[in-house]
């Protein structure tokens, strides 16, 4: 997936709207950071204007001082309300 | 790619009347059969089981969950 980050005017075709970036990620793996201490990695199947997301083959990481708690889920509808960050092609949290 | 696209409303149509797990922001899990839901993610579950820290704490018949508390709704993949 190639996404140009060149800063440019509105005429430039490399300009991309935020939701276009999310749309380009449909069918591929993404890494989501929630408000709070949760992170998810999974394949994006779709989303709506609230950026609620349908995800498949999901791994949920709950990061706390005691370590990482991992949960695996087949298919989820994730509420967009608590999403803070989405990283295309996500590897998931390291360390 | 459009063949794999599945919007939230497509997903909801697919999982209605099936067993689901609903996780709330508080970390509490509710397992039950999805009776119905709306665009606010308000949910009605039947045969509801309440899990706190992964342990079964209570069972209810029909239960209403207010949508603002919902973190995610999870379902098993449908076998083709």
TrEMBL record, chain A:
Keywords: Acetylation, mRNA processing, mRNA splicing, Nucleus, Ribonucleoprotein, RNA-binding, Spliceosome. Transmembrane segments: none annotated. The keyword Acetylation applies. CDD domains: LSm5 (cd01732). It is found in: Nucleus. Pfam families: LSM. Gene3D superfamilies: 2.30.30.100. GO terms for cellular component: Lsm1-7-Pat1 complex; spliceosomal complex; U4/U6 x U5 tri-snRNP complex; U6 snRNP. Residues 17-92 form the Sm domain. One of its GO terms (biological process) is mRNA splicing, via spliceosome. The keyword Ribonucleoprotein applies. Belongs to the snRNP Sm proteins family. LSm subunits form a heteromer with a doughnut shape. Component of the precatalytic spliceosome (spliceosome B complex). Component of the U4/U6-U5 tri-snRNP complex, a building block of the precatalytic spliceosome (spliceosome B complex). The U4/U6-U5 tri-snRNP complex is composed of the U4, U6 and U5 snRNAs and at least PRPF3, PRPF4, PRPF6, PRPF8, PRPF31, SNRNP200, TXNL4A, SNRNP40, SNRPB, SNRPD1, SNRPD2, SNRPD3, SNRPE, SNRPF, SNRPG, DDX23, CD2BP2, PPIH, SNU13, EFTUD2, SART1 and USP39, plus LSM2, LSM3, LSM4, LSM5, LSM6, LSM7 and LSM8. This is U6 snRNA-associated Sm-like protein LSm5. It comes from Macrostomum lignano. The gene is LSM5.
Automatic annotation (TrEMBL), chain B:
Component of the precatalytic spliceosome (spliceosome B complex). Component of the U4/U6-U5 tri-snRNP complex, a building block of the precatalytic spliceosome (spliceosome B complex). The U4/U6-U5 tri-snRNP complex is composed of the U4, U6 and U5 snRNAs and at least PRPF3, PRPF4, PRPF6, PRPF8, PRPF31, SNRNP200, TXNL4A, SNRNP40, SNRPB, SNRPD1, SNRPD2, SNRPD3, SNRPE, SNRPF, SNRPG, DDX23, CD2BP2, PPIH, SNU13, EFTUD2, SART1 and USP39, plus LSM2, LSM3, LSM4, LSM5, LSM6, LSM7 and LSM8. GO terms for cellular component: Lsm2-8 complex; nucleolus; P-body; sno(s)RNA-containing ribonucleoprotein complex; spliceosomal complex; U4/U6 x U5 tri-snRNP complex; U6 snRNP. PANTHER family: SMALL NUCLEAR RIBONUCLEOPROTEIN F SNRNP-F, U6 SNRNA-ASSOCIATED SM-LIKE PROTEIN LSM6. Keywords: Cytoplasm, mRNA processing, mRNA splicing, Nucleus, Ribonucleoprotein, RNA-binding, rRNA processing, Spliceosome, tRNA processing. CDD domains: LSm6. SUPFAM superfamilies: Sm-like ribonucleoproteins. It comes from Macrostomum lignano. Plays a role in pre-mRNA splicing as component of the U4/U6-U5 tri-snRNP complex that is involved in spliceosome assembly, and as component of the precatalytic spliceosome (spliceosome B complex). The heptameric LSM2-8 complex binds specifically to the 3'-terminal U-tract of U6 snRNA. Component of LSm protein complexes, which are involved in RNA processing and may function in a chaperone-like manner, facilitating the efficient association of RNA processing factors with their substrates. One of its GO terms (biological process) is mRNA splicing, via spliceosome. It comes from the Eukaryota. GO terms for molecular function: RNA binding. Belongs to the snRNP Sm proteins family. SmF/LSm6 subfamily. It is found in: Cytoplasm; Nucleus. This is U6 snRNA-associated Sm-like protein LSm6. InterPro entries: Lsm6/sSmF (IPR016487), LSM_dom_sf (IPR010920), Sm (IPR047575), Sm_dom_euk/arc (IPR001163). The lineage of its organism: Eukaryota, Metazoa, Spiralia, Lophotrochozoa, Platyhelminthes. Residues 7-79 form the Sm domain. The keyword Nuclease does not apply.
